[in-house]
Amino acid sequence: MKDLTKGKVFLIGAGPGDPDLLTVKAVKALNTADVVVYDRLVSPEIMALVPKGTRLIDVGKQPKCHKVPQEGINALLVSLAAKGHCVARLKGGDPLIFGRGSEEAEELRLAGISYEYVPGITSAQGAATSTGVPLTHRGLATGVRYVTGHRAKDATLDLDWASLASEDTTLVVYMGAMNIPEISAKLRQHGLPDTLPVMAIASATTPREKRLVSTLDMIEQDVAKADLKAPVLFVIGHVVSLYGENAAAIPVHDMVAAYA
Q1: What's the angle, vertex CA 106, arms to CA 101 and CA 110, rounded to 5?
Q2: Strand intervals (E) in the chain
Q3: Does domain 123-257 have CATH number 3.60.10.10?
Q4: Among the options 8, 91, 175, 199, which is catalytic?
Q5: Residue 244 has pLDDT above 70, yes or no
Q6: Which of 31, 80, 229, 259 is paired with 243 by a 20 to 30 Å CA distance?
Q7: Does residue 252 carry a pLDDT above 50?
Q8: CA distance 185 to 220
Q9: Catalytic residue at 218?
Q10: How far apart, in whole angstroms, are the C-alpha atoms of residue 114 and residue 121?
Q11: What is the pLDDT of residue 104?
C-alpha cells in the first residue's frame, strides 16, 4: 500500500491569462508535476508552458455543463496523489478568490494528502493593469469589493445589494455575464445612478482581450451586442471614467466603446 504522504497537490493560480504574470513558484510546480488537472479558463498560452509528456486532465466547467462535477474533481485529486503523483491543480486567477481551492484543500486534508497553495494574480488585478483602470483612486473610490455574479446550480443571486450600491466603492463582478441584467437592475434599484460607468473586460491580459465601456443602464444591451466570450469581468464605478486617461500606454486589443 502506497504512503499517502508521498503524493502532493499544488493548488496553483494561473493568473488572468498572460504567462508572464505567472509566479516563479507556479512555473516550478508545473515543471515538476506528473499530472496537470486544469480548468477551462486557463489560457492556451499558460498550457503551452506545461512540459511535453506531462499527463493533462481537463476538468473545465461551462455554464450548465460541468463535465466533471466538483465532487468528482475532489475525488480525482485525492486518487492521483494517493498513487504517489505530484499533481498541479491549475486554476484561472487565484485559487482562493472564487477558485474553490479551499474546498479541494479540505478534501485533501481529510484524506491525509499533502497540498500547497500557489497564489495567482486575480482577474481584477490583471484587468486593472491591462486596461489602465485602477481599482481604487483618490477622490473616486476609497475601496474595492469582489463579488460573484453566478451561483452554483444557477441559484438566485442573494447578494447584499444595499451594501454593494456604494458610489465610493469599486465593485468588481466575476462570472457575471449571464446575470448582468439582474445585477444592473438591483444596483440601480438600491441607489446607484443610471450613468455610473461600467467596463466589461473579456480574456483580460491575453491577445484575445476585448473591452467594452458602458453605463449601468446600458450595460445589458451593450454586452449583448458585443457578444463577449468568457471569461468576462465587470468593473462598476467612477474609476472607469479614467479609462481614456490611463490606457494610452497599455497594449490595446479589440475594443468596443459605448460610453463617452
Answers
A1: 150
A2: 8-13, 35-38, 55-58, 61-62, 65-66, 86-91, 114-118, 143-148, 169-174, 197-202, 210-215, 232-236, 254-257
A3: no
A4: 175
A5: yes
A6: 229
A7: no
A8: 10
A9: no
A10: 23
A11: 97
93 DSSP assignment: B
Known active-site residue 61 = yes
| Domain 8-118 shares a fold with domain 123-257 | no
The structure's pTM equals 0.88
Q: What is the CA radius of gyration of the chain?
A: 19
pLDDT the model gives residue 61: 65
Task: State the DSSP string of 153-199.
Answer: GGPPP---HHHH--TTEEEEEES-TTTHHHHHHHHHHTT--TT-EEE
Q: Which of 78, 73, 6, 71 is nearest to 37 (CA)?
A: 73
Q: From the candidates 39, 91, 199, 222, which is the catalytic residue?
A: 39
Q: What is the b/e burial string over 141-170, where b = at least 16 CB atoms within 10 angstroms of the residue's CB?
A: beebebbebbeeeeeeeebebeebbbeebb
Q: Of the listed 6, 25, 61, 83, which one is catalytic?
A: 61
Q: What is the DSSP letter of 238?
A: G
**How far is it, in rounded angstroms, from Cα 137 to Cα 239?**
7
Q: What is the Cα–Cα distance from 69 to 72, expressed in whole angstroms?
A: 5
- Read off the pLDDT of residues 207-225 as tens digits, 9 standing for 90 and up: 999 999 999 999 999 999 9
Cα–Cα distance, 98 to 147 (Å, whole number): 9
Q: How far apart are CA 90 and CA 94, in angstroms?
A: 10
Give the pLDDT confidence of 158-212 residue by residue, as tens digits.
899 999 999 999 999 999 999 999 999 999 999 999 999 999 999 999 999 999 9
d(CA 130, CA 183): 24
Where are the domains positioned within the chain? 8-118, 123-257
- DSSP H helical segments within 95-175, as ranges? 101-110, 123-131, 161-164
Q: In terms of CATH architecture, what is 8-118?
A: 3-Layer(aba) Sandwich (3.40)
